[in-house]
From TrEMBL:
The light-harvesting complex (LHC) functions as a light receptor, it captures and delivers excitation energy to photosystems with which it is closely associated. Chlorophyll b binds at residues 45, 86. Keywords: Chlorophyll, Chloroplast, Chromophore, Membrane, Photosynthesis, Photosystem I, Photosystem II, Plastid, Stress response, Thylakoid, Transmembrane, Transmembrane helix. It comes from Pyramimonas obovata. This is Chlorophyll a-b binding protein, chloroplastic. The keyword Transmembrane helix applies. It is a multi-pass membrane protein. The keyword Acetylation does not apply.
Amino acid sequence: MALSMAASTFTARVAGLSRSGVSNSQARRGMTVRAAATQEDTASYVKTLPGITAPFGDVFDPLNITSTSTIAEMRRYREAELTHGRVAMLASVGFVVGEQLEDFPLFFNFDGQITGPAITQFQQVGQGFWEPLVLVIGIAEAYRVAYGWASPNSAAFNTLKADYVMGDVGFDPLGLKPDNKDELFELQTKELNNGRLAMIAIAGFVVQELNGGQEIFEHLFLRLEGKL
């Protein structure tokens, strides 16, 4: 029933265009031109963003995502890339630090009961750690969404606010953000590149520990000694 109504509506609109002097082929060409213009706008917009770096002289897009996405969607993808890159950088450091300082007195596991590869330490943490951690993460995410994302009740649901700069939630306690636009652009590119590397690194850490069962440096030293 719904399909029949939709088909009837589409037919009526096409007929209306024909009666007004616009042929079906002209209408299709118009839609194609508008789509091409949108794709060109998206591609041009992406080229203005940080993150384009050597050895790629242009936007690295092997899946051709820019040709099928709007500017609003590309902004959302960049926000996701920045967020995941930051989490991956923290995770990469956490893997190494957690494995090397298992019984360090300043850490939560001061009794040395949490040991082994980082991927198994998650299950060893007892009650009293996850509850405040989940609360802190929830507060941080709620703030980020309220700061940069459009209201769920608006027509722009699931998009970023027009005046929001991707990744900039106003958190700079050390005052590291440069005032100079060129310096800021360079710093943003460095953050993106390090985040991308960290995403690859943490994926490699997880796969390696699942496969070998050794800690990161333990596996490295065994490999250097020729025991693997």
